[in-house]
Structures are given as structure tokens and as C-alpha cells.
Amino acid sequence: MARRSSSSSSGAWRYLNPAYYLKRPKRLALLFFVFVAATFAFWDRQSLVSEYESEISRLEDDINRLHDQLRKAGVHLDENPVVSNRNSRKDLVEIDPVNNERREKVKEAMLHAWNSYVKYAWGMDELQPQSKNGINSFGGLGATLVDSLDTLYIMGLKDEFEKARDWVAESLDFDKDYDASVFETTIRVVGGLLSAYDLSGDKVFLEKAKDITDRLLPAWDTTSGIPYNRINLAHGRAHNPGWTNGDSILADSGTEQLEFIALSQRTGDPKYQQKAENVITQLQKIYPSDGLLPIYINPHSGTASYSTITFGAMGDSFYEYLLKVWVQGNKTEHVKHYRQMWETSMEGLLSLTKKTTPSNYYYICEKNGGSLSDKMDELACFAPGMLALGASGYGPEKSEQIMNLAKELARTCYNFYQTTPTKLAGENYFFHTGQDMSVGTSWNILRPETVESLMYLWRLTGNKTYQDWGWDIFQAFEKNSRIESGYVGLRDVNTGEKDNMMQSFFLAETLKYLYLLFSPPSVISFDEWVFNTEAHPLRIVPVNDNKGIGTPVRPFGRKQGKPE
After folding, report:
1. Which of 235, 356, 372, 561 has the smallest CB count inside 10 Å?
2. Which residues cross the membrane (predicted)?
3. Model pTM?
4. CA 428, CA 364: separation in Å to the nearest integer?
């Protein structure tokens, strides 16, 4: 036995002797093959480990950001979410299966809306789902396609995004003999292109954004610098619509600052920012003590015309952008006057606020001269989100007051939906003593403002009630608005009669805000992004730092309109 053991041992050692292989070339080749295969396997494993560790690091960053946001919202965790013992991570990052399921349902809805548009209205502005054809509501600028770019990207729909990107690069042409709305073109097309650029880093979007904005610029060539609201894209002739008696509209003139400032930051050309900010300079000269401007402004004199004061149609987004330019500007001294104007206007908003009996629904009145009208547009339901976003800029007592008002108004807006037979909101509501609320104009055109505010309030309070409310609204859209060939609005929220239009903002805003409502707050974080009024996120550029512009982002896997 000893001899056999010895013989076996010496036999094994011979395989370590190079001479053994030099006499046997086939075995040498085999050994070399095994060595190469093992080497490749080792480095492939190392690559996978590296990718795994990189993903873990990214998730740790997301967890830390979420931890910070929870602290800001008053929720304090007992430990640092990223701890030294990596095995305990699973206890700290709990996957919410309800939110996951809801988010996937919203993503599927986006795919249904998008695929219907692709099938029946590709390249056109909007889809008419019932008649299964497209319509050019905005001059043939591919409004739905451009409006959808960032939603596709954020939802991780890569193939759909790339197909849309190619259309933008090859087919999007702005040389059209068409009188375009400066406002709608800015928020949908300029905003959509800039957001797609900020998310993907693809310069084709920036080049197209610059092209269309250059065509809009002559609208600002007025005596006061207050822009005309319509312009011919081919010839540069600007004017106001006849029904305004020559006046410019407040929201239409004061809702380009985010996009134009962003474009100047990304191109290095200050002319866009200068044009847009000059409007605010002019409005400061006539700014009233209550911060409430009428909806009509004379573009020649720069003075306000006698007209309605409202946080609904034609007023809304002017006030929104006062706050958001302050956010976009890193809340620095340079943009302090925006915040000051906004706070003044919020005092005005408080003066317009009433509550109903018997249910104590808070609502925002409209003002005509010295009298208040007990009417509120669904469009004004952006206000709860705006108030929640701006609350943290106040001292503690005022901040609580503003946040409480945001919560109360959100409750009212949610009940705009819950009090109709279809559970979808009408276009506006009237309030009467002892009767709470009643639908005025009874159509629903898939508007986003309420779910927008629910998304802000959920992120800023951590209260999951807002997610549940949003889910209720989504289910009502699924039940009443979804058809085989897309989504439609309702001509009447009481009867459920359908219209024939899938508004582009349904894909740009309504579905995006619903998706984000069920996503972690680190997905398009408020610390890094600011949303334009069409829900297009624009990256906040750190002070004296443009390096973040155009850096691709890893995807997380309101406007005028009428029923047709």
C-alpha cells in the first residue's frame, strides 16, 4: 500500500513538470485552452461583480436621498439606511408590492396610449381614438410624440423612446406657415425637447429646441417686452388673438421663463433668458400689493387691463413659474425676487379662499373687480402641489399654514372626482351655501392637475392617502376613458358620454405624474429636477456648474383643450 501511495504521488507531480508537456503537444494545447477559458471566466466574473457593486452603490445613493427627504418630511429613522453590515440591507429596503403593481399598471396604460398613437396618428399632433385618425391641433409639430419623450424614457420604454427620437431627428420640421401659440409650443415642444435632452444627453433634442425657440423669439419684440401670444413659425409675424382685443394673456406671457432660462444655460446664449426675464421685470413695475394680476396685459403699455383674476385658466401657470424659477435658480439671491413675488401672490390666494358647508371643502374663488365668484376650475388644482412645494421656504408657523391649505385644497380636488357618477372631475365647479359643490362645465379632457398635486403632497408629507386617491382616479380613467384604440375624454362626467380626443398632456402629464406617485421619490428627485407646467422635468443646474447638463439619466425601468 505504501508503494502504491508513493507511486501515485510521483505520478501527480509529473503533471507539474514542463518537460512532460513538451513531449506531448496535444496535451500542451489542451492545457493552454483550459488556461485561456479559465482566464476569460475569471474576468467575466470580475466584470459582473463590478457591475453588481456599481448597482449596489447607485441604490445606496438612492436610499440616502430618500432618507434625507424623509427627515425633511418629519419622518426620522433609527439608523443610517446604508450600514456597514451589507447583509442587513434587505431589512432596510422594503419593496412595496402595492406600489410596484400600481406603477406597472400605469406603465401598461402608457403603452396602450402610445401604441394607439403610433398605429393611428404617428407623427401627427393628437390622436382621435374613436375615429382612429390623427389631427394636427398644433400645426403639425408632433405634439403627442414630443410630449411623450420623457415619459417613455422615465418608464424605461427604450425601444419606444428610440423610435420617437428617430422621428424627431428625421421628420420634425418647424418651417411651417402656421400661427402657433407661443405658450403651447413652449411648454409642450420646447419643454419636451429640453427634458428629453436632459434625460438622454442626445444633442438632437437640444438642436431642435433651439430651432423652434429661435422661431418664437420675435413674439417678444413689443414696446413693453410683454410678448404677443401667437406667431407664424415660417415668417415670424406675431400678434394676439382677436378675442383678447389685442391684449396678451397673463399665463401665456409668464410661462416661458423655465424653458428659456434652461435653454440659455444649455447653449450658453443669454438671449432666451433675457427675453423671458424681462417680462418679469416689466410685471414687477405694475405688481399689486396683493400679488394678483388680471389675466389680460397690454403688450404695448405693459399695463394690466380690467379683467378676471384667477388661479384657473389663463392665470394659473404664471404663479407656478414664479416659484419654480426660484427653485430652478437654486433659491439664491439672484432669483430672490421671484420668491418674493410668489409669496405676495400667495397672500392674495389666501384672500380668495373660502370653505363650503356642510363639508368644509376649501376652494379658490375667482375675482371680478371687487367681487368674488364662487367658482373654481379643475385647472386650479395645480395649486395644492405648488403650495406644498413652496411651503418649506417659509418660517415654521407660516410653512404649516401653507401646507395645511395645500392639504385642504387637495381634498377638495379629489372630491371633484368622487362626487360625480363616473368618479371623473368636470372642468369647473360652483359652490353654494349649504350645498358644497356642483359641476359647472361637465366635460373631462383627461387633465392632470389633481394627480400632479397628489404626487407633490405624497412626496413632501409621506402620507400614502395621496397615493390611494391617485389610484382611485387612475381606475376611473381606466373604467371610463380607455377604449380599444386609446384613451378619450368625456363630454359629460354625469352620463359618461365619450368624446373623440386623446389630449397630448394625458401622456405628458397625467400618466407621468401617476407613475411618479407610485415610484420612490428618488426617481426624478425634487432636489435635482424642476417640472415645467407640462410635467417636463428640467435638470437644476448647480450654481456655477454646467457639468450636469446633458448627462444621461438611468431610466427607472394643462392646458388649453376642448373635447372633440
Report:
1. 235
2. none
3. 0.83
4. 12
